[in-house]
Amino acid sequence: MAVYALTGFSLVSLLSFGYLSWDWMKPSLVADVATDPMEKSPPPTFTRPPHIIFILTDDQGYHDIGYHGSDIQTPTLDRLAAEGVKLENYYIQPICTPSRSQLITGRYQIHTGLQHSIIRPRQPNCLPLDQVTLPQKLQEAGYSTHMVGKWHLGFYKKECLPTRRGFDTFLGSLTGNVDYYTYDNCDGPGVCGYDLHEGEDVAWDQSGKYSTFLYAQRVSKILASHSPKEPIFIYVAFQAVHTPLQSPKEYIYRYRSMGNVARRKYAAMVTCMDEAVKNITWALKKYGYYDNSVIVFSTDNGGQTFSGGSNWPLRGRKGTYWEGGVRGIGFVHSPLIKRKRRTSWALVHITDWYPTLVSLARGNLSNVQGLDGYDVWPAISEGKESPRTEILHNIDPLYNHAKYGSLEDGFGIWNTAVQASIRVGEWKLLTGDPGYSDWIPPQTLTNFPGSWWNLERLTVGLRKSMWLFNITADPYERYDLSEQRPDVVRTLLMRLVHYNRTAIPVRYPAENPRAHPDFNGGAWGPWASEDDGEEWEGGREPLKSRNKKKKCKICKLRSFFRKLNTRLMSNRI
Q: What would the CATH number be for the domain defined by 408-501?
């Protein structure tokens, strides 16, 4: 009883006595580095297309970078951001596959059929093959293209692999999360396989190497073997800092004073990743790329709070449409930026990188129709106004409908039971179930037993299905204005209706037993033949079942393996 009372008092204290009144513009947290008034030399001009390095981290929370006031050490990221442009009005998606698909295609997930959940290892699904990807456009512009890290955009057919979607080389994992040393991934009890690939082959020989180090070393190797006179694009999609929480011991030791074990391991992983970025930056300078380079840094979604991450002072966490799930860490570092060392409040979304980077590369966008992204380079480099005025966070018709939502609550315009979220100007609207809604302070503030779990018990708006916030004035989403401003609600609901009319059916097929790693030599990888058609059409139900003969073959194969396993076990006994 005493612990619960203390927990309740602590939460009330946090909400009532200022912890949630963090100044959004506080200098110590998002300050620009002062520029020497005598430093007037203009940045280099674009004499040739720049080298582009895009760094994407996994599950890194909004609070988990030094310049956001974190207790985690990120000196490299802090310096790169301070010398470049910090993006403090930057949005991503709440989970892995949606962010990656929108980065690669420049399209909202409602326009690729990936608006529900993620692509799971056993699903016959991948980024639609009719989409022209960012690396493919850069290849057209004369770039050498390379990917290192986590793909998570499907792999059931070889046509889905990174090397078939625009990358000249690939080293990384195809699924959503793997062991950082062994590269094993289990998609349920007994469904385990190895997942590290070099090109289209399984990279068995790399097992045992910590992935963050391995990926940084690969980037250095690529730069060493390429000519800086020729443009290069490297997409570095770190596995860090997604679970499992694993880090070399020397990094964990730095945070030995942290009482929360998950936070301690997580912090070690972030700092390790920061040093990997340092090594990449060093390689750019060593091999002659840096002066004509653009480095983009982005997170893929909000931090997972029960795995050590923190999105403080934002509301929510990974997997939610609250700001803690969709507002990302982002910055651009480049000698080519005209107005460096500043913070940008221009509205930017992850879909914007496609047209922005293709334009920087002097590529051709005239033959690409239906992009949802904008070229935001003038806003980043010169401080001009962003061309973006709104963001569709998503519309997910398959997500569990909110119990208290209805068409009536949506003024007959929109069924508020449907999970959806949109931002227009300074206003943000959420309908349905936006996901876990609490404000979760950094775990280091709450070291008494059980308290940081209890802090998560606050539940707001149990009987609601619609919220409206002025995000500019209320970035922490504390004051729901849906009842005070029905006029704004109606306007944003109409925008949802507009976008929903352009949505294509959801692609979310049932899992297929043929994907089991046991049928693929013990590794995750393509399992459908190139002759197999689409497994899913219309997002409503599977296409006609495969003929019984094919199904029977699989059943016989599975039966064979079961019998073989039984005999082996009998021999062991």
A: 3.30.1120.10
Q: Is the pTM of this model over 0.70?
A: yes
- Answer whether CATH 3.40.720.10 is correct for domain 51-388: yes
C-beta separation of 43 from 296 below 8 A = no
Q: Could you state, in order of their start, the residue ranges of all structural domains in the chain?
A: 51-388, 408-501
- What is residue 44's predicted lDDT score, i.e. its pLDDT? 55
Query: Rounded distance, CA 208 to CA 277, Å?
Result: 21
Give the three-state DSSP class for 55. Answer: strand
- Return the bridge partners of 400, or none: none
Q: Give me 49's structure tokens.
A: 């297309």
Specify burial of residue 357 (Cβ count, 10 A radius: 0-12, 13-18, 19+).
buried
> Which residues belong to the active site?
96, 152
Cross-strand pairs, 469: 428
The answer to whether 432 touches 417, Cβ cutoff 8 Å, is: yes
Distance CA 203, CA 172 (A): 9
Q: Which residue has the tokens 């930056």?
A: 281
For 71, the 3-state DSSP assignment is: coil
H helical segments located in 63-159: 75-83, 96-105, 134-140
Say if residue 6's pLDDT is above 60: no
Q: Kindly tell me if the per-residue pLDDT of 448 is higher than 90.
A: no
Write out 479-501 in H/E/C secondary structure.
CCCCCCCHHHHHHHHHHHHHHHH
- 380 in Cβ contact with 344 (< 8 Å): yes
The helix (run of H) or strand (run of E) holding residue 144 is strand 144-150
Tokens encoding 183: 């590269």
pLDDT higher than threshold 50 for residue 445: no
Which amino acid does the sequence have at 518?
A: D
Residue 340 CB neighbours (<10 A): 20
For the chain, helix, strand, coil in percent to 5 are 35, 15, 50
Q: How many helices (H) and strands (E) are present in the chain, helices listed first?
A: 14, 20
